[in-house]
Amino acid sequence: MTVRIKSQTRIKSQTLVGFPPQPALNLDFTKGYANGLNPLPSTVTFTRNDAGPYATQVGPDGLVRLAAHNAATNSQDISAASWSKRNLRNSSWLDVTTAPDGTQTADFLVPSTTNDVHDFFQGAFILASTRTVTSSVYLKASSSTYVWANVSDGTTGGVTFNLATQTVGSASAGFSGTIADAGNGWRRCSITATTAANKGIGVTVLSSDGSTASFAGHNTDGIYVWGMQVEENRTPSYYVPTTTAAKYADTPRFDYDPVTTEPRGLLIEEARTNRIYPSLINASWSTTSNLTPSYNDSGTLAPDGTQTAALLTATGTNGYIQITSGVATSASVAKTCSVWIKRKTGTGGIDIVDNGLTAWNAVTLGSGWTRVSFYNSTPSVYNYGGIRIQTSGDAVWVWGYQVEDGAFPTSYIPT
Q1: Model confidence over 76-129: pLDDT tens digits?
Q2: CB neighbours of 12 closer than 8 A, spacing ≥ 6?
Q3: In terms of Cα–Cα distance, which of 73, 8, 48, 56 is closest to 245?
Q4: 93 in helix, strand or coil?
Q5: Can the peptide bond before residue 241 be classed as cis, meaning omega within 30 degrees of 0?
Q6: Distance CA 385, CA 401 (A)
Protein backbone atom coordinates (compact mmCIF):
# COMPACT_ATOMS: atom_id res chain seq x y z
CA MET A 1 0.00 0.00 0.00
CA THR A 2 1.30 3.45 -0.84
CA VAL A 3 0.02 6.92 -0.08
CA ARG A 4 1.46 9.81 -2.02
CA ILE A 5 0.87 13.55 -2.26
CA LYS A 6 0.03 14.56 -5.82
CA SER A 7 -0.20 18.31 -5.25
CA GLN A 8 2.62 20.35 -6.79
CA THR A 9 2.46 22.86 -3.94
CA ARG A 10 5.39 22.72 -1.56
CA ILE A 11 4.26 21.63 1.91
CA LYS A 12 6.06 23.16 4.84
CA SER A 13 5.38 23.79 8.50
CA GLN A 14 4.22 27.16 9.81
CA THR A 15 5.87 28.64 12.88
CA LEU A 16 4.14 31.25 15.03
CA VAL A 17 5.95 33.24 17.71
CA GLY A 18 5.46 31.52 21.05
CA PHE A 19 3.95 28.40 19.50
CA PRO A 20 5.48 25.15 18.19
CA PRO A 21 5.63 24.60 14.40
CA GLN A 22 2.25 23.78 12.86
CA PRO A 23 1.92 21.35 9.91
CA ALA A 24 0.54 22.75 6.67
CA LEU A 25 -1.01 19.33 5.94
CA ASN A 26 -2.61 17.39 8.80
CA LEU A 27 -4.22 14.08 7.83
CA ASP A 28 -6.13 12.93 10.91
CA PHE A 29 -8.00 9.69 10.19
CA THR A 30 -9.15 9.07 13.78
CA LYS A 31 -12.29 11.20 13.40
CA GLY A 32 -14.14 8.79 11.13
CA TYR A 33 -15.82 10.09 7.99
CA ALA A 34 -18.50 12.73 7.62
CA ASN A 35 -21.55 12.60 5.34
CA GLY A 36 -20.53 9.17 4.08
CA LEU A 37 -17.53 10.54 2.16
CA ASN A 38 -13.96 9.27 1.94
CA PRO A 39 -11.84 11.07 4.58
CA LEU A 40 -8.86 11.25 2.21
CA PRO A 41 -8.62 14.77 0.69
CA SER A 42 -8.41 15.21 -3.07
CA THR A 43 -4.69 16.06 -2.75
CA VAL A 44 -3.91 12.49 -1.70
CA THR A 45 -4.07 9.36 -3.86
CA PHE A 46 -4.16 5.86 -2.45
CA THR A 47 -3.20 2.47 -3.89
CA ARG A 48 -3.40 -0.97 -2.33
CA ASN A 49 -2.32 -4.09 -4.15
CA ASP A 50 -5.23 -6.50 -3.83
CA ALA A 51 -7.74 -8.11 -6.14
CA GLY A 52 -10.78 -7.34 -3.96
CA PRO A 53 -13.43 -7.45 -2.73
CA TYR A 54 -12.26 -9.63 0.17
CA ALA A 55 -10.14 -7.21 2.19
CA THR A 56 -11.89 -6.59 5.51
CA GLN A 57 -11.88 -4.13 8.38
CA VAL A 58 -13.84 -3.39 11.54
CA GLY A 59 -16.56 -0.85 10.81
CA PRO A 60 -18.05 1.99 12.90
CA ASP A 61 -20.54 -0.49 14.41
CA GLY A 62 -17.73 -2.75 15.67
CA LEU A 63 -18.51 -5.50 13.14
CA VAL A 64 -16.19 -7.06 10.59
CA ARG A 65 -17.06 -5.88 7.07
CA LEU A 66 -15.66 -5.82 3.56
CA ALA A 67 -13.60 -2.79 2.56
CA ALA A 68 -15.54 -0.05 0.77
CA HIS A 69 -16.45 -0.99 -2.81
CA ASN A 70 -19.04 -0.09 -5.43
CA ALA A 71 -20.57 -2.50 -7.95
CA ALA A 72 -22.55 0.26 -9.68
CA THR A 73 -20.94 1.87 -12.71
CA ASN A 74 -21.12 5.55 -13.69
CA SER A 75 -22.13 6.38 -10.15
CA GLN A 76 -22.29 10.14 -10.84
CA ASP A 77 -23.72 10.11 -14.37
CA ILE A 78 -27.28 8.88 -14.93
CA SER A 79 -27.01 9.83 -18.62
CA ALA A 80 -24.71 6.81 -19.14
CA ALA A 81 -26.09 3.85 -21.03
CA SER A 82 -25.64 1.62 -17.96
CA TRP A 83 -28.61 3.40 -16.37
CA SER A 84 -32.10 2.59 -17.65
CA LYS A 85 -34.42 5.61 -17.46
CA ARG A 86 -38.17 6.00 -17.76
CA ASN A 87 -40.26 9.15 -18.19
CA LEU A 88 -37.68 11.70 -17.04
CA ARG A 89 -36.98 15.09 -18.60
CA ASN A 90 -33.89 14.55 -20.76
CA SER A 91 -32.62 18.13 -21.06
CA SER A 92 -30.79 20.40 -18.58
CA TRP A 93 -30.53 17.61 -16.03
CA LEU A 94 -26.80 16.76 -15.80
CA ASP A 95 -24.32 18.33 -13.36
CA VAL A 96 -26.84 20.98 -12.37
CA THR A 97 -26.01 21.55 -8.70
CA THR A 98 -23.35 21.08 -6.03
CA ALA A 99 -22.94 17.51 -4.85
CA PRO A 100 -22.15 16.49 -1.24
CA ASP A 101 -18.42 16.49 -2.05
CA GLY A 102 -18.51 20.12 -3.21
CA THR A 103 -18.26 19.43 -6.95
CA GLN A 104 -20.79 20.42 -9.62
CA THR A 105 -21.67 16.81 -10.46
CA ALA A 106 -25.17 16.18 -9.10
CA ASP A 107 -27.91 15.33 -11.62
CA PHE A 108 -31.59 16.30 -11.67
CA LEU A 109 -34.49 13.79 -11.81
CA VAL A 110 -37.45 15.68 -13.27
CA PRO A 111 -40.70 13.71 -13.81
CA SER A 112 -42.06 14.25 -17.32
CA THR A 113 -45.74 14.94 -18.08
CA THR A 114 -46.30 11.27 -18.96
CA ASN A 115 -48.74 9.63 -16.57
CA ASP A 116 -46.51 6.72 -15.58
CA VAL A 117 -43.53 5.72 -13.43
CA HIS A 118 -40.56 8.14 -13.33
CA ASP A 119 -37.33 6.35 -12.43
CA PHE A 120 -33.86 5.14 -13.32
CA PHE A 121 -32.13 1.90 -12.39
CA GLN A 122 -29.14 -0.34 -12.99
CA GLY A 123 -28.78 -4.04 -12.31
CA ALA A 124 -27.08 -7.31 -13.25
CA PHE A 125 -24.18 -6.71 -10.88
CA ILE A 126 -21.67 -9.52 -10.44
CA LEU A 127 -22.69 -10.91 -7.07
CA ALA A 128 -21.59 -14.51 -6.74
CA SER A 129 -24.56 -15.83 -4.77
CA THR A 130 -27.22 -14.82 -2.27
CA ARG A 131 -25.62 -12.07 -0.19
CA THR A 132 -26.56 -9.25 2.15
CA VAL A 133 -26.40 -6.22 -0.14
CA THR A 134 -26.69 -2.52 0.69
CA SER A 135 -27.59 0.03 -1.99
CA SER A 136 -27.23 3.75 -1.23
CA VAL A 137 -27.71 7.07 -2.98
CA TYR A 138 -27.61 10.77 -2.14
CA LEU A 139 -30.93 12.56 -2.75
CA LYS A 140 -32.06 16.18 -2.33
CA ALA A 141 -35.50 17.70 -2.96
CA SER A 142 -35.41 20.71 -5.31
CA SER A 143 -38.65 22.13 -3.85
CA SER A 144 -41.60 21.12 -1.70
CA THR A 145 -43.37 19.47 -4.65
CA TYR A 146 -41.52 16.16 -4.69
CA VAL A 147 -40.04 15.04 -1.39
CA TRP A 148 -40.84 11.32 -1.57
CA ALA A 149 -38.60 8.78 -3.29
CA ASN A 150 -38.31 5.01 -3.43
CA VAL A 151 -34.90 3.34 -3.50
CA SER A 152 -34.95 -0.26 -4.71
CA ASP A 153 -32.69 -3.12 -5.75
CA GLY A 154 -33.95 -2.62 -9.30
CA THR A 155 -36.33 -5.58 -9.41
CA THR A 156 -37.44 -7.18 -6.13
CA GLY A 157 -38.40 -4.36 -3.75
CA GLY A 158 -37.28 -1.27 -1.90
CA VAL A 159 -37.92 1.39 0.72
CA THR A 160 -39.61 4.80 0.55
CA PHE A 161 -38.06 7.94 2.04
CA ASN A 162 -39.34 11.43 2.91
CA LEU A 163 -36.49 13.82 2.13
CA ALA A 164 -38.15 16.78 3.86
CA THR A 165 -38.72 15.14 7.24
CA GLN A 166 -35.70 12.79 6.88
CA THR A 167 -37.76 9.74 7.71
CA VAL A 168 -38.08 6.18 6.43
CA GLY A 169 -41.51 5.21 5.10
CA SER A 170 -42.74 1.82 3.99
CA ALA A 171 -40.42 -1.08 3.11
CA SER A 172 -40.86 -4.22 1.03
CA ALA A 173 -40.68 -7.54 2.88
CA GLY A 174 -37.10 -8.37 3.76
CA PHE A 175 -35.84 -4.81 3.20
CA SER A 176 -34.73 -2.19 5.73
CA GLY A 177 -33.71 1.41 5.17
CA THR A 178 -31.78 4.27 6.73
CA ILE A 179 -31.64 7.98 5.93
CA ALA A 180 -28.90 10.32 7.12
CA ASP A 181 -28.33 14.06 6.82
CA ALA A 182 -25.41 14.69 4.44
CA GLY A 183 -25.44 18.49 4.70
CA ASN A 184 -26.90 21.29 2.54
CA GLY A 185 -30.26 19.53 2.17
CA TRP A 186 -28.74 16.25 0.96
CA ARG A 187 -29.83 12.90 2.46
CA ARG A 188 -27.98 9.63 2.07
CA CYS A 189 -30.65 6.96 1.68
CA SER A 190 -29.71 3.28 1.92
CA ILE A 191 -31.54 -0.02 1.67
CA THR A 192 -30.34 -3.43 2.85
CA ALA A 193 -31.64 -6.89 2.00
CA THR A 194 -30.43 -10.43 1.62
CA THR A 195 -30.88 -10.66 -2.12
CA ALA A 196 -30.07 -13.08 -4.89
CA ALA A 197 -27.28 -12.50 -7.39
CA ASN A 198 -27.50 -9.85 -10.11
CA LYS A 199 -29.58 -7.26 -8.29
CA GLY A 200 -28.82 -3.53 -8.39
CA ILE A 201 -30.16 -0.10 -7.49
CA GLY A 202 -33.02 2.08 -8.68
CA VAL A 203 -34.54 5.44 -7.70
CA THR A 204 -38.20 6.31 -8.32
CA VAL A 205 -39.67 9.79 -7.81
CA LEU A 206 -43.03 9.41 -6.03
CA SER A 207 -46.06 11.69 -6.24
CA SER A 208 -46.18 14.84 -4.13
CA ASP A 209 -47.95 13.03 -1.27
CA GLY A 210 -45.86 9.88 -1.63
CA SER A 211 -48.92 7.74 -2.33
CA THR A 212 -48.09 6.46 -5.82
CA ALA A 213 -45.25 5.90 -8.25
CA SER A 214 -47.41 6.44 -11.34
CA PHE A 215 -48.46 10.05 -11.97
CA ALA A 216 -48.12 12.90 -14.46
CA GLY A 217 -45.32 15.32 -13.59
CA HIS A 218 -45.06 18.93 -14.76
CA ASN A 219 -41.54 18.79 -16.22
CA THR A 220 -40.01 21.38 -13.83
CA ASP A 221 -39.53 20.24 -10.23
CA GLY A 222 -37.83 17.04 -9.15
CA ILE A 223 -35.11 15.48 -7.01
CA TYR A 224 -31.34 15.90 -7.23
CA VAL A 225 -29.36 12.67 -7.26
CA TRP A 226 -25.69 11.74 -6.83
CA GLY A 227 -23.40 8.95 -5.70
CA MET A 228 -25.18 5.65 -6.35
CA GLN A 229 -23.49 2.66 -4.67
CA VAL A 230 -24.07 -1.10 -4.35
CA GLU A 231 -21.95 -3.19 -1.98
CA GLU A 232 -21.87 -6.52 -0.17
CA ASN A 233 -22.16 -5.11 3.35
CA ARG A 234 -24.90 -4.80 5.96
CA THR A 235 -24.54 -1.01 6.19
CA PRO A 236 -23.24 1.58 3.68
CA SER A 237 -19.52 2.26 3.51
CA TYR A 238 -18.14 5.65 2.56
CA TYR A 239 -18.94 6.54 -1.04
CA VAL A 240 -16.68 5.06 -3.76
CA PRO A 241 -17.09 6.88 -7.12
CA THR A 242 -17.00 4.85 -10.33
CA THR A 243 -16.99 5.51 -14.08
CA THR A 244 -17.30 2.73 -16.67
CA ALA A 245 -16.20 -0.07 -14.33
CA ALA A 246 -17.11 -1.22 -10.85
CA LYS A 247 -14.54 -0.67 -8.11
CA TYR A 248 -13.99 -3.67 -5.86
CA ALA A 249 -10.44 -3.05 -4.62
CA ASP A 250 -7.75 -0.46 -4.05
CA THR A 251 -9.81 1.56 -1.56
CA PRO A 252 -8.49 2.79 1.81
CA ARG A 253 -9.74 1.11 4.97
CA PHE A 254 -10.50 3.15 8.08
CA ASP A 255 -10.52 0.78 11.03
CA TYR A 256 -12.50 0.93 14.30
CA ASP A 257 -12.06 -0.68 17.70
CA PRO A 258 -14.42 -3.71 17.83
CA VAL A 259 -15.25 -3.09 21.51
CA THR A 260 -15.37 0.72 21.91
CA THR A 261 -16.06 1.47 18.18
CA GLU A 262 -13.58 4.34 18.45
CA PRO A 263 -11.88 5.16 15.09
CA ARG A 264 -8.34 3.77 14.85
CA GLY A 265 -7.45 5.57 11.63
CA LEU A 266 -6.13 4.43 8.27
CA LEU A 267 -5.47 0.67 8.25
CA ILE A 268 -2.10 -0.17 6.68
CA GLU A 269 -0.83 -3.75 6.62
CA GLU A 270 1.20 -6.04 4.45
CA ALA A 271 -0.36 -8.36 1.88
CA ARG A 272 -1.28 -11.79 3.24
CA THR A 273 -3.08 -14.96 2.11
CA ASN A 274 -5.42 -17.04 4.26
CA ARG A 275 -4.26 -20.62 3.67
CA ILE A 276 -7.39 -22.16 5.18
CA TYR A 277 -10.41 -22.69 2.94
CA PRO A 278 -13.20 -22.37 3.70
CA SER A 279 -12.47 -19.97 6.52
CA LEU A 280 -15.98 -20.43 7.96
CA ILE A 281 -16.38 -23.64 9.94
CA ASN A 282 -18.93 -25.70 8.00
CA ALA A 283 -19.47 -29.22 6.66
CA SER A 284 -16.12 -29.05 4.82
CA TRP A 285 -14.50 -29.33 8.25
CA SER A 286 -15.37 -33.01 8.25
CA THR A 287 -12.85 -34.49 10.68
CA THR A 288 -14.39 -34.59 14.16
CA SER A 289 -13.98 -36.59 17.35
CA ASN A 290 -16.05 -36.37 20.56
CA LEU A 291 -17.69 -33.21 19.19
CA THR A 292 -21.04 -32.19 17.67
CA PRO A 293 -21.05 -29.16 15.33
CA SER A 294 -24.02 -26.93 14.47
CA TYR A 295 -23.21 -24.85 11.39
CA ASN A 296 -24.74 -21.39 10.81
CA ASP A 297 -26.05 -21.60 14.35
CA SER A 298 -28.90 -19.22 15.26
CA GLY A 299 -27.81 -18.85 18.88
CA THR A 300 -25.59 -15.82 18.28
CA LEU A 301 -24.48 -13.37 15.61
CA ALA A 302 -20.99 -13.76 14.18
CA PRO A 303 -18.42 -10.92 14.38
CA ASP A 304 -19.71 -9.64 11.02
CA GLY A 305 -23.33 -9.52 12.21
CA THR A 306 -24.46 -12.62 10.27
CA GLN A 307 -25.65 -16.03 11.46
CA THR A 308 -22.63 -17.86 10.07
CA ALA A 309 -20.88 -18.93 13.28
CA ALA A 310 -20.60 -22.64 14.12
CA LEU A 311 -21.53 -23.97 17.56
CA LEU A 312 -19.19 -26.73 18.73
CA THR A 313 -20.25 -28.93 21.65
CA ALA A 314 -17.85 -31.47 23.18
CA THR A 315 -19.44 -34.88 23.72
CA GLY A 316 -16.30 -36.29 25.33
CA THR A 317 -12.88 -35.29 26.58
CA ASN A 318 -10.78 -33.32 24.08
CA GLY A 319 -13.48 -33.10 21.43
CA TYR A 320 -12.14 -31.52 18.26
CA ILE A 321 -12.93 -30.49 14.69
CA GLN A 322 -10.31 -30.16 11.96
CA ILE A 323 -9.90 -29.24 8.30
CA THR A 324 -6.97 -30.48 6.18
CA SER A 325 -7.51 -28.62 2.92
CA GLY A 326 -4.91 -25.89 3.50
CA VAL A 327 -2.51 -24.70 0.85
CA ALA A 328 1.02 -26.18 0.99
CA THR A 329 3.79 -23.77 1.92
CA SER A 330 7.51 -23.91 2.66
CA ALA A 331 8.46 -25.55 5.97
CA SER A 332 10.82 -22.65 6.65
CA VAL A 333 8.00 -20.10 6.67
CA ALA A 334 6.65 -19.20 10.10
CA LYS A 335 2.90 -18.78 10.40
CA THR A 336 0.21 -17.24 12.57
CA CYS A 337 -3.09 -18.97 13.28
CA SER A 338 -6.17 -16.99 14.40
CA VAL A 339 -9.91 -17.52 14.90
CA TRP A 340 -12.83 -15.84 16.67
CA ILE A 341 -14.24 -17.84 19.61
CA LYS A 342 -17.14 -17.10 21.97
CA ARG A 343 -17.97 -19.34 24.91
CA LYS A 344 -21.53 -20.61 25.34
CA THR A 345 -21.22 -23.02 28.27
CA GLY A 346 -18.49 -24.40 30.51
CA THR A 347 -15.16 -23.17 31.79
CA GLY A 348 -12.75 -25.78 30.44
CA GLY A 349 -9.72 -25.16 28.26
CA ILE A 350 -9.91 -24.35 24.54
CA ASP A 351 -7.05 -25.08 22.08
CA ILE A 352 -6.39 -24.28 18.43
CA VAL A 353 -3.90 -25.73 15.95
CA ASP A 354 -2.43 -24.98 12.51
CA ASN A 355 -0.62 -28.28 11.90
CA GLY A 356 -1.85 -31.81 12.50
CA LEU A 357 -3.32 -32.77 15.88
CA THR A 358 -0.22 -32.81 18.06
CA ALA A 359 0.81 -29.18 18.59
CA TRP A 360 -2.34 -27.77 20.24
CA ASN A 361 -2.08 -24.23 21.65
CA ALA A 362 -4.18 -23.09 24.61
CA VAL A 363 -6.05 -19.79 24.16
CA THR A 364 -7.71 -17.40 26.61
CA LEU A 365 -11.27 -16.25 25.93
CA GLY A 366 -12.99 -13.02 26.93
CA SER A 367 -16.61 -12.43 27.89
CA GLY A 368 -17.82 -12.16 24.28
CA TRP A 369 -16.23 -12.73 20.90
CA THR A 370 -12.44 -12.92 21.17
CA ARG A 371 -10.05 -13.20 18.26
CA VAL A 372 -7.40 -15.56 19.59
CA SER A 373 -4.11 -16.32 17.84
CA PHE A 374 -0.73 -17.99 18.21
CA TYR A 375 2.56 -17.78 16.33
CA ASN A 376 4.21 -20.98 15.10
CA SER A 377 7.87 -20.29 14.34
CA THR A 378 8.52 -23.85 13.07
CA PRO A 379 5.56 -24.92 10.94
CA SER A 380 5.35 -28.00 8.78
CA VAL A 381 4.78 -27.96 5.03
CA TYR A 382 0.97 -28.17 5.36
CA ASN A 383 -1.65 -25.87 6.90
CA TYR A 384 -4.42 -27.40 8.98
CA GLY A 385 -7.08 -25.71 11.06
CA GLY A 386 -8.50 -27.16 14.25
CA ILE A 387 -10.36 -26.31 17.47
CA ARG A 388 -10.34 -28.56 20.54
CA ILE A 389 -12.62 -28.40 23.60
CA GLN A 390 -10.97 -30.11 26.56
CA THR A 391 -14.02 -30.71 28.78
CA SER A 392 -17.04 -32.81 27.83
CA GLY A 393 -20.25 -30.76 27.76
CA ASP A 394 -18.52 -27.43 27.11
CA ALA A 395 -19.64 -25.49 24.02
CA VAL A 396 -18.22 -22.55 22.04
CA TRP A 397 -19.11 -20.63 18.90
CA VAL A 398 -16.31 -20.21 16.34
CA TRP A 399 -15.95 -18.06 13.21
CA GLY A 400 -13.31 -16.96 10.72
CA TYR A 401 -10.33 -19.34 10.83
CA GLN A 402 -7.10 -17.97 9.37
CA VAL A 403 -3.57 -19.31 8.86
CA GLU A 404 -1.12 -16.89 7.24
CA ASP A 405 2.61 -16.55 6.69
CA GLY A 406 3.99 -14.06 9.19
CA ALA A 407 4.55 -13.37 12.87
CA PHE A 408 1.23 -11.67 13.67
CA PRO A 409 -2.42 -11.82 12.52
CA THR A 410 -3.70 -9.34 9.96
CA SER A 411 -7.31 -8.40 9.23
CA TYR A 412 -9.62 -11.28 8.43
CA ILE A 413 -9.39 -12.74 4.91
CA PRO A 414 -12.58 -14.70 4.07
CA THR A 415 -12.12 -17.68 1.77
Answers
A1: 999 999 999 999 987 778 999 999 999 999 999 999 999 999 999 987 565 555
A2: 24
A3: 73
A4: coil
A5: no
A6: 7
